[in-house]
Write a structure and sequence with these properties.
The complex is a heterodimer of chains A (about 280) and B (about 110). Chain A has about 280 residues and is an alpha/beta fold. Chain A is built from 10 helices and 10 strands. In chain A, the strands form 2 sheets. In chain A, strands 6-7-8-3-9-10 form a 6-stranded mixed sheet, sandwiched between helices. Chain B has about 110 residues and is α/β, with parallel strands linked by helices. A 5-stranded mixed sheet of chain B has the order 1-2-3-4-5. The longest helix of chain B is centred in the middle third of the chain and has 17 residues. Classes of the chains: A alpha/beta (about 280), B alpha/beta (about 110). At the A-B interface, α4 and α6 of A face α1, α2 and α3 of B.
Amino acid sequence: MSGLFDRDDAHRLVPGSTVIAVEGLAAHWGERQVLHDISLQVGSGEIVVIMGGSGSGKSTLLRHLVGLARPTAGRVEVLGTDLRTASARAMHRLRRHMGVAFQGGALFSSLTVLENVILPLQEHTRLAPATMHIMARLKLEVVNLAGSEDLLPAELSGGMVKRAAIARAVVMDPPLLFFDEPSAGLDPVVAAELDRLILQLRDAMHMSIVVVTHEIESALTIADRLIVLDGGRIVATGTVAEVRASQSPRVQALLNRQPSVPDFDPEAYLDRLTRA
Amino acid sequence: MTTPQTTLVEDHATVALEGDIDLSCSQTVRSALLAQLRAGHAVSVRMAAVSYIDSSGVASLVEAYQLARKLGLDFQLTEVSEAALSVLRLARLDRVFPIATGSDGKG
């Protein structure tokens, strides 16, 4: 990770460094190719939002960025680590510097909220227990979950699970954060609070943040840069203004919330309906 | 970060922090603050030269402040840099800590 941190033991990225570099990424699920020639970069202190409809490949791309899937072709480098060739030890070291808030929360059902949030600190640091507890409680305050410390995941609403997952993802103040559909299923007030939190994490903690979402309003609010995926390909990338100005019909359909309707073929339609 | 510089005048310790206060050094800061309080000294934490503070650094300040309250000792942050203040604001701790603007500890 040389060049990205100003000291060997540092946790904060050098401004202006590239934290994620993807070149020519391709991915398959079985025979089906789901990502085609994806190239992108994320800079330090930047919020990059990956947008796309269902089946556009955005969740698959996220899985590759966090090291949960290996590319069929191409290169994925995160915080200076090439994920194709990284050893288990290198991946463990890398995970200390990144947080992931999964869509479904991925909380341990037998642990309380506080125990879930404190887990990364216990696994990756040797801080005093009192420090760890205060850090975890601070993050629960930040996501408005104060008072829920002793609840089990099964006792939480969907929105609370999501916020607990976010508290766990940020508890180590990682320089790189990933959010998978952070505001999906949340009421508008909580979703707006979450958008504010993401902006605050960038501004106050200098975090680099990648958000995967299909929530257009949220994407346009928080993004420094947007990447629009369709059919496993990048169809637009740039600032909000640049993407808004895109001439691509697919991009305009997505921004204007128009459904994706394939060319209508009455013959084929009738065939499908009457197929034995 | 270099080791916190502590200046003791009678029973009032001024602990000066500088640079990045993060996982690599927050426990040193914690120890310095708790030691002064356990010795019965009031504490001012000078934060003008703090370029960044993470949650472990903030947690150390919180723990020290709580101990000071238990022991009935004065505890304040002074000359808090904008970088540190933005992190305190994120957790609404700017409304919790006594924060003085002047180097003499006066607001």
